[in-house]
Amino acid sequence: xxxxxxxxxxxxxxxxxxxxxxxxxxxxxxxxxxxxxxxxxxxxxxxxxxxxxxxxxxxxxxxxxxxxxxxxxxxxxxxxxxxxxxxxxxxxxxxxxxxxxxxxxxxxxxxxxxxxxxxxxxxxxxxxxxxxxxxxxxxxxxxxxxxxxxxxxxxxxxxxxxxxxxxxxxxxxxxxxxxxxxxxxxxxxxxxxxxxxxxxxxxxxxxxxxxxxxxxxxxxxxxxxxxxxxxxxxxxxxxxxxxxxxxxxxxxxxxxxx
Length: 258
Fold this sequence. Notes:
mainly alpha, 8 helices, globular
């Protein structure tokens, strides 16, 4: 909740400082998240170094790191492409889509932070994997319909609110409307935590790279055929994310449920 509020109210920084505001906002949000994690840590920890533990940490953590970086890197490349192909003006207009993605993306990310440790705990208790997955599906179905409702409401509200609050970003409304559906495609992404719990990230990586490839191909072809248009980029992200999640769910079914 606190991170969501910080995301929402920090939009004012962009309003007053433009492109530099984006950078300031990103830094401030990083400090806010770190502060919340530190202040809510469940244990008082002391530091102790052992090579064996460090080795195990890398063996477990690096695969999780790599799969976690795929979409972050892709989104960063997409932003850079907008700046290169569309110039500073279109990049500035895309800031509205970035805000939408950050605010609504908090919901699936929050679900994932709850479901991931629950999966690990249930596995440690010897609960069968199919039961763990089925346990996690019900709240995600509810999340999907909540996200769908918010996206539909947002589509109708953005053309009303943005010209009043951020009139300079009005030309970015259509792209932002598309971006409302990007977090929706990630409604079931929390199930992907099972790959990390069972250390089978290979299949998850295949899903991620397939989505990145198809989404990027869609953007390239649309720009090549129709020319530059800001809404092409959130459309490509939506398509890529949909392919990622569809393949990931397919692999989960084949590997763990069948």
